[in-house]
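User: Here's a protein and a ligand (copper (II) ion). What would the complex look like?
Assistant: Let me lay out the input and then the predicted complex.
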Amino acid sequence: MNRHVNVSWMAALLLALPLLAACGGGKEAQPQPNQLVQVKLTGHQIEMPGSVAPGKTTFKLTNTDSKPHSFEIDGPAGENGLKDVLQPGQSTTLEVDLWPGTYRVYCPQDVGMTLALQVSETAHS
Ligand SMILES: [Cu+2]
């Protein structure tokens, strides 16, 4: 009789252990790293992918032209852009939490430096 009780206790403990471990691990859940999108401002156009996944995104912007340029992205996540123009040869980053939908990406300095960016519904890795 006593032995049976002890075995049950052991079984209960063994079942509980992974749960306790899972609880402890959950607290240390890593934040999702931002996806990185490379953007080149060439003067004639903005070179970047036409579609990206939703979520926290870091745009790595590089001005490869001989004139200053800037970067704006307007859409479902609101209006985001650089505060200052990007000088020739310089790089900077812009972080945007992208929601699904269509965005207008453009350089406020130049008419025609514009493109449509599609942000998909689901993240795909
Ligand atoms: Cu420009």
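Summary: Strands lie at 35-41, 46-47, 51-52, 55-63, 72-75, 78-81, 91-98, 101-106, 114-119.
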